[in-house]
Amino acid sequence: MQAYHISLILSRIASFLLRLVSVPKCIVCGELLEREGEICPDCLAIWEEARAVRCPKCLKTAAACSCRPRFMFLTDPIQSRPMLSLIFLGKPGSKETADRLTRIIVYKTKRSEDRSAANFCARELSLTTLRFLYRSGENPREWIITYPPGTKQRIRKYGFDQSKQLAKKISKYTGIPWMSCFKRIGHTMQKTLSSMARRANAECSYSLHGYNPAGKKVLLLDDVITTGATVNACTRLLREAGAEKVFPISIARTKRVVAAARRTTQSRFMYHMK
Questions:
Q1: Cβ-count burial of 61 within 10 angstroms (0-12 exposed, 13-18 middle, 19+ buried)?
Q2: What is the Cβ-side half-sphere exposure of residue 83, based on CA atoms within 13 angstroms?
Q3: Which end of the chain is more exposed for a tag (fewer CB within 10 A), N or C?
Q4: Which of residues 41 and 272 earns the better pLDDT score?
């Protein structure tokens, strides 16, 4: 345990020194930046295009999408929105410029020691969240931010918990206090599992620990929401503890597959199985 904490501290020191000596470059293309920030004008324009991409089912952008992820059904919608995201996550291996850009930014937010991508996403999500809460008649001061923590193996590997860092940065930009409400008790990462296995794994991976959310409105932050299994499991724990409302926010979410597309995929699968 002591060696784990020492390695974590050394990783943070190395990350801090790297930011001091590094020349500011675009988090996507690596071009030198002429002014302060994390992304060049060309890549920022592509980012805005990615944010304008619409859901194939409800035909809304990620920030306004009214589709619930497959296993997320306990959260409280606000103005018919079950959650709030900045972008739809691009498909792996896609040649679309916007898809490639979103995956690069999300990847660096989750794994890079240089936290420039995390700073960029935190600011973007903070502004979008505040605008949404105010337009919905919600007072941000009545909310708190919490997050599902990562596994010890992942934190040891990358030197930080990206969800915790994002929560702290969003709290700084919005003024909404962040609280640690969960303890990670499972060790299997969701990305390694199928959609059904994710639901079962999420239900036994967290327990309440730390701050008591009773009577609070909670913004539940998860960097990327796919099936919604993790969010649903954490929401159940918050509700059992007496939380008044739970609303998920994320950098990216996956698109819902329309029924026709799902049937086509299944038909192709059955054809190849013959």
A1: middle
A2: 33
A3: C
A4: 41
Q: List own/partner pairs for 214-217 with CB under 8 A and 24 or more apart.
A: 214/241, 214/242, 214/243, 215/242, 215/243, 215/244, 216/143, 216/144, 216/243, 216/244, 217/138, 217/142, 217/143, 217/144, 217/243, 217/244, 217/245, 217/247
- Strand pairing category for 182-184 and 206-208: antiparallel
Per DSSP, helices labelled H in the chain are 2-21, 41-51, 97-111, 116-135, 152-158, 162-174, 195-203, 229-240, 259-273
Query: Which phi and psi angles does 38 have, rounded to 5°?
Result: -125, -10
Contacts (Cβ under 8 Å, ≥6 apart) of 218: 143, 144, 145, 146, 181, 238, 243, 245, 246, 247
3-state secondary structure of 252: strand
Q: Which residues contact 239 (CB under 8 A, 6 or more apart)?
A: 74, 246
CA triple 150-53-71, angle to 5 deg: 40
Domains and CATH numbers, the chain: 40-273 (3.40.50.2020)
pLDDT given for residue 189 in this prediction: 66
Nearest in space to 178 (alpha carbons), one of 211, 150, 214, 222: 211
Size (the chain), residues: 274
202-239 pLDDT, tens digit per residue, is 788 899 988 999 999 999 999 999 999 999 999 999 99
**Region at 36 (left for phi over 0; alpha for psi -120 to 50; beta for the rest):** beta
Distance from C-alpha of 254 to C-alpha of 269, rounded to nearest angstrom: 22
SS (H, E, C) 20-56: HHCCCECCCCCCECCCCCCCCHHHHHHHHHHHCCECC
**125, 162 contact by CB (below 8 A):** no
Q: Which residue has better confidence, 263 or 171?
A: 171
